[in-house]
Amino acid sequence: MKAMLSALAVSTAIFAASPASAADLEVMHWWTSGGEAAAVGELAKAFDGTEHSWVDGAIAGGGGTARPIMVSRLIGGDPMGAFQFNHGRQAEELIEAGLLRDMTAIAEAEGWLDVVYPQSLLDSCTVDGKIYCAPVNIHSWQWLWLSNKAFESVGAAVPANWDEFVAAAPALRKAGLQPLAVGQQSWQTSGAFNVLMVALAGPDVLVKVYGDKDVDLAAGPELASVFAAAADAREMSQGSNVQDWNQATNLVITDKAGGQIMGDWAQGEFQVAGKVAGSDYTCLPGLGVNELIDTAGDAFYFPIVDDAEITAAQDVLAATLLSKETQVAFNLAKGSLPVRGDVDLSAANDCMKKGLEILAAGNTLPAVTQLNTEDTNNQLNDLFVEFFNDTGITPEAAQARFVDIIKSGE
Ligand code: GAL
Prior knowledge:
Elements: H1 2-17, E1 24-29, H2 34-48, E2 53-58, H3 63-75, E3 82-86, H4 92-96, H5 104-109, H6 112-115, H7 120-125, E4 126-127, E5 130-131, E6 133-135, E7 143-147, H8 148-153, H9 162-174, E8 178-180, H10 186-200, H11 203-211, H12 215-219, H13 221-237, H14 245-253, E9 257-261, H15 266-272, E10 281-285, E11 293-294, E12 298-301, H16 308-321, H17 324-334, H18 350-360, E13 364-365, H19 368-371, H20 374-389, H21 395-408
Parallel strand pairs: 1-2, 1-3, 8-9, 11-13
Antiparallel strand pairs: 3-12, 4-5, 6-12, 7-9, 7-10
The chain binds beta-D-galactopyranose.
Beta-D-galactopyranose binds near residues 30, 62 and 298.
């Protein structure tokens, strides 16, 4: 008996002295396209290089499908180890409900306040002075991706701006090419509308309409001209029979479509397909009109769990996501810009370099996910997917519904 007790004492001492054990951490995200999978693979590799293991929880179908599934896991009491959301207001209610960890201690230990640029990325993670998320990238919506070959094949110059693209659309159509590629996921159409708003009406209009919920501006002539441009885009998108955003990107990559308005995650698809920016395709920030990028992007949140090993692994993941090495490897694959200004991105392609220049010049605007609640954005998604699918909805009628959404927004 005595021997048994002393053996037990020894093993307890060994256990107490050993570091927190390795944990399997389930990480949920919606990165399933070719470029996205390559990028998230870099995050997994970095985390697997620690004592812990990344258990991949990818959900296909995009953020609109993934977020409700993640929320139901959380409110159903079955939290994952970590999950991706867009940085901004999407996690507000989960934070209020007390379901997510305050990561301020890690942020402080890792010096995030000194290295994260722009500061607004951390502001988006912060509620009542506490930092709840780890931002991993800056993804801007403000891009038009063009197939050089599609335009060359109809004897047209590759457009340098939105108006030139609209003017070239009939020639593409006549040649049996799809002028504008748009998929059916509803966020694609509202995203395209918001990009048109920034390019044609200017960034201040977007910030006032969404940030201040300026109803008069939403109902006024500047927005009316954006709705008229959206009707052009709708016309150009007819016949684009694809669902997912990356299928639409693929129409541009394979030169079957002239262009796509899409965030710079599209870059990851061109990269996986071995296409070269400048010669195979052209990227126009701000639709070639207003060279700006918004500070949309992705962040990871960490649910409160009653398990010290998981909690310790969450801390390690948060630190790993923002390390210099992870930031470079992940963002080069993703097509996004790093969240820290002190990393070497000399390997970036021409489009990313343009993005970095715009960022360095400070020509940025907040992302719609930072200005609107998830509820308002879902209503906008519904409006624009209907508008793009039903040519019977006049721009004026769509604008009236838009005004109602802004009026009820918070
Ligand atoms: C965005 C996200 C990007 C991206 C895209 C398409 O919400 O910020 O990282 O990949 O969805 O899935």
